[in-house]
Fold this sequence. Notes:
alpha+beta, rod-shaped
Amino acid sequence: MRLQYCLCCAVALQWLMPGGSQSVSVQIQTPQPVHVLPASGLLLQAQLSPQVSSVAWEREREHGSHVGKVTLAVFPGNPSSGRVRLKQQGAVFSLEGFTTADSGRYTVTVTDRSGATATAECIVTEYVAVHHVSVSVNASHASLFCAEAWGSEPRFTWLHDNAAVTTALGRVSADGKTLFFSSTPVCGHFTCVVSNRLGHSSATYTAEPCRREGGGGAGEWAWLLVLLVLGGVLAFLLWRRRRQTLRRGERLQEHLEENL
C-alpha cells in the first residue's frame, strides 16, 4: 500500500510551567494541504516533547453530512482501530485505504502528567485529477494565462506548435501559469498542458498561421508553376480548337462557291 507522508516539525501551541520551563509541546510541518491518492495510505508523523503522557489523534470534517470532530486513536488506550494504527507511543499515525470521507483537518493533542496540553493541525485532502483547463489572452501585457479548476498539485507546461516554448518567443512565470511574449505580433498554436499524478489535460490558443521560411516558399512557387503550366495547356487547346473551327468554315465556303 502506498503511503502519503506528513512529516511533523513546525509551529505548535505551547504551555509553560509556573517556573517558566516548557511542559509539553508537539510540532507539525508539511507542505499543506496534504494530498492523498485514493485507496492509498496516509501517514502522519509528529515530534513530541519527552514530558508527553498521552496522545490523541482527531479528524474534523469541514464538508458533507457528518461535519464535526471525531477521535480516531488515543495512546495509551486504543492505539489501533480498524484502518487506523498508532506507533512510537502515539507519534506516528497511519490510515489505510484513504477515501473522500477521510479528508479533513487532522489534529494531534498531547498531554503531560500535570494536565497541560499542546495541539497541532494538518489539512488532508483527496488527490484530484486536473479538470477544465483554459487559456485566456491579456492583450495589454502581451501574455497568455492558463487556468485549471481544482486538480491537486498541478504542473503547467507551454508548447508552441507542439514544441517547447523557446526564450526567443517568450518566458514562463515561476508558477508556470503565464506565458509572456518577447515580441508581438505572435503566430501559431499555443498549448497549455496541465498535469499531475493522475493524468493531464490541455487547452490551445490559436493565433494567425505562421509563415514558414524555406520549405513553405518553395511549395508556393511549385504550385504557381503548376498553375502556369495548366493555364498554358488550356490556352493552347482553346487556340487549336478555334483554329480548326475556322478552317472548317473556310472549306465550307469554298465548296459552296464551286457549286455556284
